[in-house]
Write a sequence for this structure.
């Protein structure tokens, strides 16, 4: 791994995992998503990872029109790199998941490096008064759900967005096998360095949030990619800050945001994405490290530039 000159903070603003009942601070409408994304950029996030929600129900939506209600506003208000999901949400087809990115041609999108069980149903263990019927249904359905990204799917995404739109990718690796899948595409020259490798811990179905696993994922990525990659870490729930702190200490980059954790401390809901960005930034700076600006992130990841997107 080429040591990060400065630490890139990615902020994942809303995602498709958490539901409206779980936190009143989760941004749901285009206005809320735009506002929180802009605040996160002002707090120090140089990359904003974005999903869309149905503004009436808060349910994840792939609708490009909904994305276009907040993408231009964020671009006008910040210099941050905009990174659109290709993972979407449970039950979306590949074409639905890609629709917004195909339209918007952003600098970056996420790309999950394999199919996997993606279990959210343990969140049902805590009794709640659900605001919407879809919330417990989605969580329960994850007991019998496989997030699909086959080799053919990944090849299609690389061709459609990478070759077709100049998009670079946040390669999301939820387990060791995903690193080897990425190495396969590197061997075939279907992906080009520098690779932005996001190693993910603590999702049921992926590798567990154990510090030894973080070390193992990094050692494996170092072996497979050498200096051809830039490493970043996210961890779900209460593991968010410990794991991102470990990553920063070890020369990596970090991802925070309400997609990954709703909390800022034990039992304390984060009131905004910016609050989490400020917290990890204060830790990074306390370690005598510097936070990358959006322009520094673009240079580090060889992105095409904010002037070459379609929104």
């Amino acid at each position: 791994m080429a040591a990060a000159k400065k630490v890139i903070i990615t902020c994942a603003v809303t995602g498709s995992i958490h539901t409206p009942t779980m936190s009143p601070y989760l941004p749901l409408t285009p206005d809320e998503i735009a506002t929180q994304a802009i605040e996160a950029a002002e707090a120090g996030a140089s990359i904003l990872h974005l999903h869309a929600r149905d503004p009436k129900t808060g349910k994840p939506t792939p609708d490009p029109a909904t994305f276009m209600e907040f993408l231009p506003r964020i671009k006008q208000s910040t210099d941050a790199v905009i990174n659109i999901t290709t993972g979407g949400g449970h039950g979306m087809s590949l074409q639905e998941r890609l629709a917004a990115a195909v339209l918007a041609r952003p600098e970056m999108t996420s790309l999950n490096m394999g199919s996997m069980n993606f279990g959210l149903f343990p969140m049902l263990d805590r009794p709640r008064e659900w605001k919407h019927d879809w919330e417990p249904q989605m969580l329960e359905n994850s007991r019998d759900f496989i997030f699909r990204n086959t080799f053919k799917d990944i090849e299609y995404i690389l061709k459609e967005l990478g070759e077709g739109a100049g998009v670079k990718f946040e390669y999301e690796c939820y387990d060791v096998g995903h690193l080897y899948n990425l190495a396969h595409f590197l061997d075939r020259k279907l992906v080009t360095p520098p690779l932005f490798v996001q190693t993910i811990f603590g999702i049921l179905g992926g590798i567990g949030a154990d510090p030894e696993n973080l070390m193992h994922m990094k050692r494996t990525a170092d072996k497979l990619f050498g200096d051809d990659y830039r490493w970043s870490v996210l961890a779900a729930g209460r593991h968010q800050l410990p794991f991102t702190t470990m990553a920063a200490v070890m020369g990596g980059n970090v991802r925070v945001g309400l997609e990954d954790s709703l909390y800022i401390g034990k039992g304390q809901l984060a009131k905004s994405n910016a609050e989490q960005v400020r917290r990890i930034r204060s830790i990074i700076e306390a370690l005598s490290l510097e936070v990358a600006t959006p322009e520094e992130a673009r240079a580090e990841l060889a992105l095409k530039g904010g002037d070459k997107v379609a929104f």
Q: What stands out?
A: The CA atoms of residues 164 and 304 lie 13 Å apart. The first strand starts at residue 9 and ends at 12. The chain has a mean pLDDT of 97.
